[in-house]
Amino acid sequence: MNFFDLSYKGIPPWDIGHPQKEIIRLAEEGEISGRVLDAGCGTGENALYLAGLGFEVWGIDAAPSAIKKAKEKAKKRSLTVNYLVFNALKLHLLQNKFDTIIDCGLFHVFSDEERPIFAASLSSALYPGGKYFMLCFSEHEPGSYGPRRVTQAEIRAAFSKGWKFNYIREAEFETIFGPHGVKAWLSSITRL
Question: Is 37 in contact with 60 (CB distance < 8 Å)?
Answer without folding.
Answer: yes
